What we know:
This protein is α+β, with helices and mostly antiparallel strands. It has two helices and three strands.
Amino acid sequence: MVRECKEEVGIDVKIEDLTFVHVSHRSILSLDKIYFDVYFIINKYDGVPSIMEPDKCSELDWFDIDNLPHDIIELRRVAIEAFKSKKYYSEVIDYFLYTE
């Protein structure tokens, strides 16, 4: 997570400033693939969040967790709702996040 924060949004995060909140077990049966998406709250960071991979992301913005954009990726919406309900684990079967 520390590495991903630096690579993707250019911020420095310490392990002790992370709080685990959710893991999603995602299976794509038709491709025989399994993924685990792990979510954390970052309690403190240094730097200014910026798009570090412009070929993978077109916009970076802050939103109220109870008023998310209508076009948020559905898998992320499910994880956020699970977090709000204090559910630490979820499963999504045969979900395609990317066309392969």
